[in-house]
Design goal:
- The complex is a heterodimer.
- By secondary structure, chain A is of the alpha+beta class.
- Chain A has two domains: 35-260, no CATH class; 271-366, Sandwich (Immunoglobulin-like), CATH 2.60.40.
- Chain A has helices at 12-26, 35-43, 56-69, 154-165, 210-228, and strands spanning 46-47, 117-129, 137-149, 186-192, 195-200, 235-239, 245-246, 250-251, 255-256, 271-275, 280-282, 287-294, 300-307, 310-318, 327-335, 339-348, 356-366.
- Chain A is globular, with a radius of gyration of 23 Å.
- Chain B is an all-alpha fold.
- Chain B has two domains: 8-111, no CATH class; 121-184, Orthogonal Bundle (Arc Repressor Mutant, subunit A).
- Chain B has helices at residues 14-39, 42-58, 60-63, 66-98, 113-119, 125-131, 135-145, 151-158, 162-183.
- Chain B is globular, with a radius of gyration of 19 Å.
- The chains are: A alpha+beta, B mainly alpha.
- The interface between A and B is large, with 68 and 75 residues.
């Protein structure tokens, strides 16, 4: 304590209780290591396109800081929008970044970019198999670092996020994501406080089931809304070639939105592991805690900790809510010996007690 | 000390990196926890403090002192956390209005981060009562009893006078006592 300059001495018991309560409360979280990411941001993540001159670097850095500090709302990615609310909070409110040493896919900046760009972490949703048998699908969220123009508007960031979400290819080596938007690009994204309008180059790829294409539409809705960060603004689509539907089934004349809170299971994969992130490296001696979300019967899911393909520990966890509501769960794995691990979370069928109705895994390392 | 080298490579280079590394090692956890106590969302807290470190690094040519840099970090964290709460309130008002409307696919009622935080609350009476205090009183008491800052340091972090710190602290403690007595 740096000084008793404010309070009367007879408050000391109460003050001590308050101090202990605050410290106990704060200890409930374990801040993840982000030093690597911070250093990357201050050094590697602010890039200036040709011509590359040294004096431009601090300009780009300043632009990067301005981006972090300011959201200018409502300007379309083509600059045709309208500024409504200046000086809002940082990007952190809508685009939490991946932590520490996790290997996060990074998209390449557009080769046509001629202005200063900066890297930001954007939330993107992907359609992926949610069961081991691959017959059920849902949306998974990834935080992907990608280049946006320095000082990008929310609409510009949303366009970048949608571009990421429409290209699952970087993930397909290690996640069961499908690519229903293969061959389709986003041409424009405009946002107002009441509508997000996305113009696509085409109406989507062929060969996917009705449920997969429905989720493909919804992944764009979730991604655009998350990147804009202003709640569930309805999303409307337009197709550059004049198509009246997406995937031949979803009219562009109507708007689309996320489902209600008790219907999120319609869109989201039943189980998400939010920590550890894929390939995250924990320092040896540090406690490993797995966290995530689920929508499971009676909020109950099973977990396994695997090493070299074999389960070395397992257990059951109960989320904060059971389906149809989505709950959060936490598994404290404690301090682990150095090595490569996989954390698997799954839900067993209540019908036969054997079948796996949902599952997902994340590899991580302790060094 | 007053030299300004906005475009020069030396000041913003190794020295800034070194300061960032030292400050990170010493204060990352406590600053994230401070932000978390204010916003109740770990992702947001980590992002807030991460942004503060990045900004501090870019301002190192003006700061060039670890104590000044730490004070700057605290101001950034408190201000950004406050902005998050403000933004969240605006968003909740907007969502509240939106849920009265209908769209083709229905409207989302995704719970706010505050709601989630309440759902996860441990039931600590004092902490819960602290959350019900006016924002400024909550900030003063959190800085005082979590970071153990002095009156002058709190005044600097919140950009208010020392007298205001004292007043907010007394009112906050009185409010806490009253709230806890009523609740218990």
């Amino acid at each position: 304590m740096t000084g008793n300059d404010m309070f009367d001495s007879d408050d000391s018991d109460f003050e001590r209780q308050l101090r202990e309560s605050l410290h106990r409360d704060a200890e409930r979280i374990s801040p993840r290591d982000r030093r690597t990411e911070i250093l990357a941001m201050v050094h590697d993540d602010t890039r200036v396109a040709e011509p590359r001159r040294r004096w431009l670097i601090p300009v780009a850095a300043a632009a990067s800081v301005a981006l972090i500090g300011t959201i200018v709302w409502g300007i379309s990615s083509t600059g045709a929008g309208q500024q409504v609310t200046p000086a809002a909070p940082s990007t952190s409110t809508t685009a939490p970044a991946p932590s520490g040493s996790a290997k996060v896919p990074v998209t390449n900046p557009s080769p046509s970019a001629t202005a200063a760009t900066t890297q930001v972490a954007l939330p993107a949703y992907f359609v992926g198999a949610s069961s081991g048998t691959g017959d059920r699908f849902g949306l998974y969220r990834e935080f992907v670092r990608t280049a946006v123009p320095a000082g990008a508007t929310p609409a510009q960031k949303a366009k970048a996020a949608v571009e990421v979400a429409m290209n699952a290819q970087p993930f397909t080596n290690y996640e069961p994501y499908i690519q229903p938007w293969s061959g389709t690009t986003v041409q424009d994204l405009a946002a107002t406080p009441s509508l997000i309008t996305i113009t696509l180059s085409g109406s989507g790829a062929n060969g996917f089931t009705k449920e997969q294409t429905r989720l493909a539409v919804q992944e764009i809705v979730w991604t655009a809304q998350a990147a804009i960060g202003k709640g569930t603004i309805p999303v409307k689509f337009a197709v550059a070639d004049g198509s009246a539907t997406l995937f031949g089934a979803y009219p562009t004349a109507q708007t689309y939105n996320r489902p209600a809170k008790d219907l999120l299971y319609q869109d989201l994969a039943p189980i998400w592991i939010t920590s550890p992130e894929r390939d995250h490296e924990f320092k040896s001696g540090a406690a490993v805690v797995a966290t995530g979300e689920s929508c499971a019967f009676e909020a109950t899911t099973q977990w396994q900790l695997k090493k070299s393909g074999a389960a070395i520990r397992s257990g059951t966890t109960t989320a904060s809510s059971g389906c149809p509501l989505r709950g959060t769960w936490k598994v404290d794995l404690g301090v682990l010996a150095a090595g490569d691990y996989t954390f698997r979370m799954y839900e067993v069928s209540m019908q036969d007690g054997k079948g796996i109705v949902a599952e997902t895994s994340k590899p991580f390392t302790v060094r | 000390m007053t030299e300004r080298r906005e475009g020069g490579p030396a000041v913003g280079g190794w020295e800034a990196d070194s300061a960032l590394t030292d400050l990170y090692a010493a204060h990352w956890h406590s600053l994230v926890r401070l932000s978390w106590l204010l916003v109740r969302d770990q992702h947001v807290a980590e992002e807030t403090v991460q942004d503060a470190f990045v900004t501090m690094h870019s301002r190192w040519s003006q700061l060039r002192d670890q104590d000044l840099a730490l004070a700057y970090l605290r101001r950034c964290v408190v201000n950004s956390s406050r902005s998050v709460l403000r933004h969240r309130k605006v968003e909740e008002r907007y969502l509240s209005a939106e849920t009265r409307a209908r769209t083709a696919h229905g409207m989302s009622t995704t719970p706010s981060a505050e709601t989630r935080a309440l759902e996860h609350a441990t039931g600590d009476l004092l902490v819960a009562a602290l959350g019900r205090l006016p924002r400024r009183q909550r900030e003063v008491l959190t800085l005082r009893y979590f970071l153990d800052l002095s009156e002058a340091q709190i005044a600097d972090a919140l950009s208010i006078s020392a007298g205001s710190v004292k007043a907010h602290a007394h009112r906050g403690l009185a409010g806490l006592r009253s709230d806890v007595e009523v609740t218990s």
